[in-house]
Amino acid sequence: MNLPTLYNGMVAMPQDEFEQLLEQAAARGAKRALADVGLEGEDAAHDIRELRDLLDAFNTAKRTAWQTVIKIITTGFVLALLAGALLKIELFGGQ
């Protein structure tokens, strides 16, 4: 690694060394961020997969709940229409 040089108040260094420095800083930052939320160590990948699975299950349950609500409303509407039609043709002995 070459020593960086100062040029007009700016630090200059070769592009490949700069990119390597950025990668190292990004890796350290990512590790620190994961550690801050308790996802450090060897089990971190497993924990993240479990969190994704839990989120997928929650989204599936939410979608199923909405579908069930819509089916109940639709079924109620159809039954109300059917009951109204049956009353209209006086099938139940209406007047």
In short:
The chain crosses the membrane at residues 65-87. InterPro entries: DUF6127. This protein has 2 helices and 2 strands.
Number of E strands: 2
Instruction: Summarize model confidence as the mean pLDDT.
Output: 88
Q: How much helix, percentage-wise, in residues?
A: over 70%
Approximate shape? rod-shaped
Q: For the CA atoms, what is the radius of gyration?
A: 32 Å
List the total number of helices.
2
First-last Cα distance: 99 Å
**Spatial strand sequence of the major β-sheet:** 1-2
**Strand residue percentage:** 5-15%
Give the number of domains.
Answer: 2
Class by helix and strand content? Answer: mainly alpha
| Low-confidence spans | none
Order of helices and strands: EEHH
Transmembrane segments: 65-87
Protein name: Transmembrane protein
Pfam families: DUF6127
Organism: Nitrosomonas communis
State the main characteristics.
two-stranded antiparallel sheet, single chain, transmembrane helix, mainly alpha, membrane, Transmembrane protein, rod-shaped, transmembrane, 2 domains, 95 residues
Protein described:
The protein has 95 residues and is mostly helical. The chain folds into two domains: 1-40; 42-95. The chain is built from two helices and two strands, in the order ββαα. It has a two-stranded antiparallel ribbon with strand order 1-2. It starts with a strand and ends in a 7-residue tail after the last helix. Pfam families: DUF6127. This is Transmembrane protein. InterPro entries: DUF6127.
